[in-house]
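ok so i was messing around last nite and threw this chain in just to see what happens. nothing serious, just curious
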Amino acid sequence: MTLDTPNIGPKRPVIRQLDDAAANRIAAGEVVERPSSAVKELVENAIDAGATRVDVAYADGGKTLVRITDNGCGMTAEDLPLALSRHATSKIDGSDLLNIHTFGFRGEALPSLGSVGRLTITSRAEGYDAATITVNGGQIGAVKPAALNRGTVVELRDLFYATPARLKFMRTDRAEAQAISDVMKRLAMAEPKISFTLRDISEGRREREIFRFDAEQGEMFDALGMRLARVIGREFADNAIRIDAEREGIRLTGYAALPTYSRGAAVEQYLFVNNRPVRDKMLIGALRAAYMDFLSRERHPAAALFVSCDPERVDVNVHPAKAEVRFREAQVVRGLIVSGLRAALGGAGHRASTTVADATLAAFRPEAMPEASPQQPSFARVYQMDRPSMGATRAAYAAQAPDFQPAPAYPARAYPSQPQDGFAETTAFHEAQPGYASPSARFETAPADLTARPLGAARAQLHENYIVAQTERGMVIVDQHAAHERLVYERLKRQMAENGVPAQALLIPEIVELSAGDAALLLEHAETLSKLGLSIEEFGGHAIAVRETPAILGEINAENLLRDVLDELSDLGDSQLVQAKIEAVLSRMACHGSIRSGRQMRAEEMNALLREMEATPHSGQCNHGRPTYVELKLSDIERLFGRT
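result:
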């Protein structure tokens, strides 16, 4: 396409060598996008220096001040000027750019920050005197003596003052502060053995400590769990399962939340490669694929996953901010994440998140009373019983005497005589009364041996849809349709895995014309697609012939299916589309083949359903990620009635 104003004019351009200041500003545009980028680079330097305590303070969202204080190894007066020169680093020797064990390795952060802001570094190495150096807009000052006990203090003021155009792209102070907090939380999760503090010291406002994460103690898994509870929240820690899987020398560790603890957005997905926080598209796709069978499309899983491998098997030098990585065996990593997460979720059995019970208890709590006013005083409910008077205590003791005959408190009602033998007789008596509506509930006896089981013994069925079971420590309410739907679905999947996916041959193969690259990409995955009932083969040129399609999908548009699969392959490197469509059909079959709402169940049927739920993986949530049961502890129920 010919432009009216081409980039290159009629005169031949002259190639020039840019000076260091211009080169540093260009590098700063790649490395330092906003204040949080500066915080990330400087805190990573502190961690690489062996710091066990890192304190970060900022003002005005980091626009006017960012200060990082650490107790690392520090630098000498001779090191300070060298640290501000481009591509000067102590972390690698340049002989092997793949064997990288540190966060930083390029030596670009400090000179880039000094070229666009006012940077001051004060440091002291053990056995040396402290020294300080300042650089303003790329102009490096002289090294001067300073006072410092240990470590390094890096202070960055007036970020982008040397490049005013960049200031126009800055967001509000609140948004920039939130970005700094997010960066710090990710680094805190990566290093649970290091203490982190984040403070807002904006002028004109009271100093505010955003968070303080003290170094965690104990074994690494326990330390990580405690740090995640502090950073993400106690709810996540209570509803997360431990992940520890390995394949071909690559290890996956961390914590992943139960499907019933899902979020409305991907805000609690934290991924790390060799302890480096990353936002890698392939890893996010693998996480999503692992939960594909348990969550609807609008829900997102929560997890903190750590992939560890030999540094030579992953390239971290593919993104300016090192936010993305490239694996040598990407499919191995993806397969490890999917299989490792699914195995761990399967091991959780029928477990559902505690947030379900919390929401149920919140719904049971009484409504707040209106606020008091002079015209209408407040009569707030008081559930905690007052201490009884001495007279009431004596009356209570007297009432327990064998010969006690209480006086009638109210006159007898003019009811016909009714039997007092039990619930069934009482029910029959009430049903004989005019205007009586039969309740939609039935009671069952509770065998003592079944109440010790995780889901207890069935005691009642309410509204022909909800099973109430008694456990040793409380009660369980089960949605019979949702629970049985999941059980049938898991049974159908197990049968499909054992017998394979039946394929139906097309009478006339469908020919799909593609580009050379797309055709080659599909043929690379032909064997995997064939196991799912989609058989393809080369048909000359760049065409693909579709010979068979999954029989369970019925009549489909093979070309549209192939192109959708191709989109996933191009975007994520793998495709779960065909499997997802097959499982969607199985899910619909399970829905139609399960116990319907409104069906009365006998005690044996209800208990059999509970026992099968206990033995079936993923039975704690239905096919759409909703809970199949709610468990209420006896202590929680007693708290509702003010008994504790």
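not much to say yet. Residues 480-499 form the longest helix (20 residues).
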